[in-house]
Specification:
single chain; 167 residues; alpha/beta; five-stranded parallel β-sheet; 6 helices; 46% helix; 19% strand; globular; binds adenosine-5'-diphosphate
């Protein structure tokens, strides 16, 4: 069976991520999305919330599942018998970091390959952090996220603002 893992923070899942998930699900028999808890990135949503949102948007894709993971991506891939790690490439800015990551992983785990999918043009500028910045400033994020995810982001910022006012 062909299995791929797609690791990331997904804080929150965007239409750009979804595009990569959908395209991977068309060429692989099983896709395991790995949600990382990268505290250095100061996530807006908890891992549980991020997984719930991913489950929601991928509900129609029967060969896609979501798992939490920590540690090395190659260990996560091995645990799922995946031979492929999927990453999305947006612009040149992604390239150097992704190349370094892929080459390092290949040295440690030669049996696992990294597969890059280039973004669909209309999402090539899109990132979770950009979406969060726009939302925190009261901007419209409906072009970038599934409607239910956009609602969650707005709700989260409302809660955070209420908390700040109370303080
Ligand atoms: P990470 O913390 O690993 O950067 P992200 O959730 O930001 O996690 O991204 C996970 C993966 O999805 C990365 O390979 C990233 O390049 C890719 N990705 C992020 N945004 C997009 C997008 N708009 N289009 C395609 N791929 C994307």
């Amino acid at each position: 069976m062909s299995v791929a893992v797609y690791p990331g923070s997904f804080d929150p899942v965007t239409l750009g991520h979804y595009d990569i998930i959908m395209r991977t699900a068309q060429v692989m028999e099983r896709v395991v999305i790995g949600v990382l808890n990268n505290q250095a990135k100061k996530p807006l949503f908890s891992v549980k919330e991020r997984i719930a949102m991913l489950e929601d948007v991928t509900a129609g894709l029967s060969n896609v599942e979501i798992q939490y993971f920590e540690g090395l991506t190659i260990d996560f891939a091995r645990k799922n018998q995946a031979k492929v790690i999927v990453r999305g490439l947006r612009a040149v800015t992604d390239f150097e970091y992704e190349l370094q990551l892929a080459q390092t992983n290949r040295v440690i785990a030669p049996e696992i390959d990294t597969m890059f999918l280039t973004t669909s043009l209309k999402y090539s500028y899109l990132s979770s952090s950009m979406v969060k910045e726009i939302a925190s400033l009261g901007g419209d994020i409906s072009e970038f996220l599934h409607p239910q995810i956009a609602r969650n982001v707005l709700k989260k910022y409302e809660e955070l603002t209420c908390k700040e006012i109370r303080l």
